[in-house]
Amino acid sequence: MTIKDIAAKCGVSVTTVSRVMNNHPYVSKEIRDKVLKVIEEEHFVPHVGAVDLVKPRTDAIGLIVRGTRNEFFNDMIPTLESAINDSGYAFYMSQIHTSENELRAAAALAKSKGLKGVILLGGRYDYTPEEVAILDNVPFICCTFTNSFGKISKESFSSVSIDDGRAAKAAVQLLIDNGHRKIAIILASTSDRSISELRFLGYKQALEENGIPFDADLVMETGDFSMERAYKAMKKLLSKKKEFTAAFVISDSMAVASMKALDDAGKKLPNDCSVIAIDGVKMTEYIIPTLTTFVQPREAMAKQTVESLRDIIENRSDYSHVVMKTTLREGGSVKKLQN
Amino acid sequence: MTIKDIAAKCGVSVTTVSRVMNNHPYVSKEIRDKVLKVIEEEHFVPHVGAVDLVKPRTDAIGLIVRGTRNEFFNDMIPTLESAINDSGYAFYMSQIHTSENELRAAAALAKSKGLKGVILLGGRYDYTPEEVAILDNVPFICCTFTNSFGKISKESFSSVSIDDGRAAKAAVQLLIDNGHRKIAIILASTSDRSISELRFLGYKQALEENGIPFDADLVMETGDFSMERAYKAMKKLLSKKKEFTAAFVISDSMAVASMKALDDAGKKLPNDCSVIAIDGVKMTEYIIPTLTTFVQPREAMAKQTVESLRDIIENRSDYSHVVMKTTLREGGSVKKLQN
DNA sequence: TTGATTTATGAAAACGTTTTCATATCTTTC
DNA sequence: GAAAGATATGAAAACGTTTTCATAAATCAA
């Protein structure tokens, strides 16, 4: 069923049908109504490929989501989509595995859909200008990663992120302020050029600034962000018989799993062990005890991301690197130590 | 940058370039290499619209997601995507608001992308053949809804679901078996032709079969599936000073929020009040106490959905209505009542 | 050698739309 | 009642690709 068939059924030309569909003037009411009726009857929907070929495309922004889905991504995606649609851009999304090259994927999406800009969710923090070159000057923004510790090359793309290092440092500092000195950390990796590593650096900085010696025995690397692994990591940590009064866990869901491991081992929360995290998963507001965590401002981050990207697309400004504030959400999982 | 430009740069015809890109034989190694090199250099990516126009499309299956995102949808979407890709179909997705007509959206997506079939996540349970007609014979499957209580019209589409009514009944029966007779229920709506209503019917059936009088005072309608509302609903229920020893909450996240409300009111879990739910949210396996819930087999449901849909597309069988088994995951939130 | 295959290449049609241009009819305006 | 403008319609070109058909060169079989 093509526009030709519709035209034939109505006894008019394809031009007229096209005009009706695109609300051009200069079509008599009589014909317009008839065409609309036939279109309705036949459930006719134009072939997007054909339209795409001939119409100057509507401006579109693409989103590349890298790695396995997690709660943060799942919150960000619809928010980004709305923000993009609200600014009159169309939205395309492509999900890729961690093993794929995200910039290559971005370039492919950009080219094939004629994108005006690309957002990357879940990349690294250290793209070089040479790597970004593949995008062929399509504006590119990285949502999630930070320039803390000067590890980012700022010349060829924008970013919106929280300051992972600073948030981690603040989280650990909060524990220290509450009298904790033996603080464990549970993270995915100490050296993957992403969130995990940055938060690890924040942890170490906080210890250092407070004159607390770093103890490698209190560092648990899980390899990923899963709850299973976090649970096991905490179990293993406990089995070491190494004393600690608090744990900084790099994500909320991992923190929940760690708390369960503590509870299963007979530890009372938060008395026997305090737990603090970074993220802001909704459900952790309702667990018992409520998780103390530094909340990433998801909605604001999504909006800022689209705004920053549009600034480049619409030539209002050059690359920018916006660092958003995390907010401490105090729950009941951190306890003041008396000694 | 089109295929023409590439051809010109290589001094060959567009035909040859096209052949290179589609791995046709009968291109000399010399030319093939040259073309590939230029394509690489120019970051050339073919215009999808043009390809779409002329190539017999790869078979594709579409997914319509209706309503606000929730944890169940977020789990199902990537699983469905993999299952679809694994069977060699391309995947398209479109998210719509509850206010939009899901069948109309499905029809539009199907037409414009030339879909072989459509999956609907989050619809109602009672589509009539007349409504489904808009799809113009594109196979259609509803994932999530059930035929319990004979409320489904089976003639014009397939479905994969859990038996919401039966699961709800089993959940309530479990509470009764543990000695509970004053059982509250927290749900979104008692009459919205979807999950909520079906689970409510299961609750009532269980009570009836055990000779327990139905008490409307123990029914709390929240209006949606949010944790905020569930929390408030439980608070309100508690303020009624109406005695109850257990609560059946229709979703895991709502159950978590209810448990928090109980805890905040000084009730000890599960001693002062047992809680049971249906869903199987990962995180509820790690909360304290672990939530007792009937787990929806997400992965299996996704696989079955794609399989059932392919059965129709590939003419192996007619419409089917598969009801998947939920599994009781016993946690610590249900307590045997001693009296 | 001849003719038949196989290999290699290009010209042009086709896909389903939109849009430009041309044309025809209908209103105005004087 | 003629010129000018507004309104209404259609023919055909254009978009970027794939594919069919034609043709040419190279290889093979006798």
Give structural attributes.
homodimer, 339 residues, alpha/beta, Rossmann fold, 6-stranded mixed beta sheet, 12 helices, 41% helix, 17% strand, elongated, DNA-binding
Structural topology:
2 copies of one chain form a homodimer.
Chain A: H1 3-10, H2 14-21, H3 29-42, H4 48-54, E1 60-66, H5 71-86, E2 90-96, H6 102-113, E3 117-121, H7 129-132, E4 140-143, E5 158-162, H8 164-177, E6 183-187, H9 195-209, E7 219-221, H10 227-239, E8 246-249, H11 252-264, E9 274-279, E10 292-295, H12 298-313, E11 321-324, E12 327-329
Parallel strand pairs in A: 1-2, 1-3, 3-4, 4-5, 5-11, 6-7, 6-8, 8-9, 9-10
Antiparallel strand pairs in A: 10-12
Helix pairs in contact in A: 1-2, 1-3, 5-12, 8-9, 10-11
Chain A binds a DNA duplex (30 and 30 nucleotides) through residues 2-4, 12-16, 18-19, 21-22, 25-28, 31, 46-47, 49-55.
Characterize this entry briefly.
The structure is a homodimer of 339-residue chains. Chain A is 41% helix and 17% strand.
Describe the structure.
The structure is a homodimer of 339-residue chains. Chain A is an alpha/beta fold and 339 residues long. Among the domains of chain A are: 3-41, no CATH class; 164-296, Rossmann fold (3-Layer(aba) Sandwich). The first copy, chain A, contains twelve helices and twelve strands. In chain A, helix 1 (3-10) packs across helix 2 (14-21). The A-B interface holds A 43-53, 69, 74, 78, 81, 95, 107-108, 111-113, 134, 136, 227, 231, 253, 256-257, 259-260, 263, 269, 281-283, 285-288, 290 and B 43-53, 69, 74, 77-78, 81, 95, 107-108, 111-114, 134, 136, 227, 231, 253, 256-257, 259-260, 263, 269, 281-283, 285-288, 290. The structure holds a DNA duplex (30 and 30 nucleotides).
